[in-house]
Amino acid sequence: MTTMETFHLLQPYRIAEETFVIPWALEAPPVGHFPMNSMVIRGSEPVLVDTGAPAVRSQWLEAAWSVVDPLDVRWIFLTHDDRDHAGNLLAVLAECPNATLLTTWFSIGRMAEEWETPINRCRFMIDGDTVDVGDRTLVAKRPPLYDNPTTRALFDPKTDVLWAVDTFATNVPAPIPEIADLSADEFREGQFFGGRLVSPWVALLDGRKFGAVVDDFQRLDAEVIAGCHSPVLRGPRIAEAYDLLRRLPEIPAWPEFTQADLDQWMAVAEGSVPPEQPRPSAT
C-alpha cells in the first residue's frame, strides 16, 4: 500500500493486482484540495479509465505510459465527457492506435462542441453493459451521484475494484492516497461536502428511492473503491461512506460561496496575488 511518505502527485500507485491510480489534485481554497485521479488496469488487454486533465497533459501521459505501453492499450473507458475526465482523450487515442473507446452516444455528441471523436473506434457501453477485456469482464454501472448525464462507473469483479467516478467525492486538507488518512470528522464532512457539491440535486430526492439506488450500487460488494475526486476507500470506510451517502437527501443544500466571499478573500490577499499567468504547457 502506498504511504504518505511514498505518495507523489502524477506518480501512479498500485491499489490492487494490476490496477493503478494516477493521482493528481487541484488546490481549492478555502477548502483544501480536490483529487483529480484516473486509473489503469494493466491486465491482458490493458484499460485506461478516464484520460486525466489537460492542465497536466504531458505529465499525465508520461505517468500513464510508465504503467503500460500505449501500443498495448486495448480499451479506453471514458466515464463521461467532462474535461477532468476526457481532457486528454484525443492525445490518448493518437498514442494508443490499438485501443477502442468505451463511451456513449450522448458523450460523443457533447464532445462534438470541441472535437470530433472517431466513431469507428468507439463502442457504446451503457448502464449494465459488460465488456470482455481478456482476463476479466468489466461492468458499467450508473453511480448514485454524478454531475454529468452520461456518467457510468466501472466495476472489475476479478479484483473487486470499483471506479466510482464522482460518487464519494471529497475535499482533503492535502493530497493523500488513502481515505483512511483522514480523521473521522474530515471523512464525514468531506463526504457531505463533496456529495452536495457534485450533485446539488440530491437535496430534491426522495430518500427512500435514493436509498434503493445506493443499495443497488453497494451490492457490487467492492473491496476497493477508487474515484476521480476521492482517495482510495477500503475496509470499514466503504460501509461508512455508503451510510453517509444515504443521508445526503436529508441534509440542506450546500451554501455556495458568493461575491462577498470573493471580495473578502481578495481583500485579505491584496498585494500578494500575482498577475494571471497561463498554466504550464500541457502539450
Give the helix/strand class: alpha/beta
The first-to-last residue Cα distance is: 32 Å
Q: Percent of residues in helical segments?
A: 25-40%
Low-confidence stretches: none
Please, what is the average pLDDT?
94
The CATH architecture comes to 4-Layer Sandwich
Strand order of the largest sheet: 1-2-5-6-7-8-9
CATH topology: Metallo-beta-lactamase, Chain A
What is the CATH superfamily classification?
Answer: Ribonuclease Z/Hydroxyacylglutathione hydrolase-like
Q: What is the count of β-strands?
A: 15
**Overall geometry:** globular
* Beta-strand share of residues: 15-25%
- Give the count of helical stretches: 8
Q: Characterize the largest beta sheet: strand count, sense, and whether it forms a barrel.
A: 7 strands, mixed
Total individual domains: 1
One letter per element, helices H and strands E, the order comes to: EEEEEEHEHHEHEEEEEHHEEHH
Compute the CA-based radius of gyration.
19 Å
CATH class: Alpha Beta
